[in-house]
Amino acid sequence: MRNTEIERLFSGLIGEEYELLRVMHPEAAEMSKRVGEFVSNNGTSGAGLPLKVLEIGCGTGITTLALLNSREDIHLTSVDNEPTMLNQARQNLSRWIEKGQVILVENDALSALCDLPDDSLDMVASAYTLHNFLNSYREKALAEILRALKPGGIFVNGDRYGLDDFEAHTQQVQTEVKRYFEVLMERNRTDVLEQWILHLFSDESPHHVMRTQPTLQTMEAIGFYPVEEHYRQGINALVSGRKPKTS
Ligand SMILES: C[S@@+](CC[C@H](N)C(=O)[O-])C[C@H]1O[C@@H](n2cnc3c(N)ncnc32)[C@H](O)[C@@H]1O
């Protein structure tokens, strides 16, 4: 039976022209770098063992590259359900794929997580993917992340964490929309602009929007501890949650 919670929001123009997002949303590149730095500074595996990391929503491989460059002992599996994005990732990461340091998997995030054994990952990392999920789907994914992490393992996510002050949040989104127009009108790409505006409506809809406090509270209720916000620029935040050593 088709799971109606699974959405494919990056097929078509948005996926094909994903490079434009670097100009439209420069905060994302900084966030990818920070996700890599976080893994570099916080991941621990057993002595001599590779650091087993799952990346959720690798897209074209921007954050994947930051993860691969973060440390030599990383063994990364990156999941995405959108072939348009994965095809670009295969090209961008060919050197790493050949070396066997990253495996790209075409699958839905929740299905991939459910297939993993308990306590099997040192870290789960992600950037700008979970905010796309329906709230109900995100909650299930977070619970599966916790289950699949080893005790002491960490989930790190650099993403859109909406401001809890609704007015301030709206102002941030308006600034974002203004930038989309500036960048894409200058390039005569009204076709891409239309798709990103529609996408933003999905991100902001009540069933998707990932607000900061409710999301952090959900993570704690599921069993992550501590749950911490490490960095914020507007609605972009780096959040982590640890699986306690004893539950
Ligand atoms: C905004 S892109 C972010 C890509 C990348 N992490 C980055 O930092 O540039 C979100 C990615 O998540 C993927 N995605 C969204 N929902 C997904 C799901 N349910 N399962 C797997 N991948 C998903 C999309 O296909 C897309 O490639």
Automatic annotation (TrEMBL):
Protein's name in the database: Methyltransferase type 11
Natural source organism: Nitrosococcus halophilus (strain Nc4)
Entry-linked PANTHER family: TRANS-ACONITATE 2-METHYLTRANSFERASE, TRANS-ACONITATE 2-METHYLTRANSFERASE-RELATED
Any GO molecular function: methyltransferase activity
InterPro entries listed in its UniProt record: Methyltransf_25, SAM-dependent_MTases_sf
Methyltransferase domain ranges (all copies): 53-153
One Pfam family of this chain: Methyltransf_25
Domain of life from the UniProt record: Bacteria
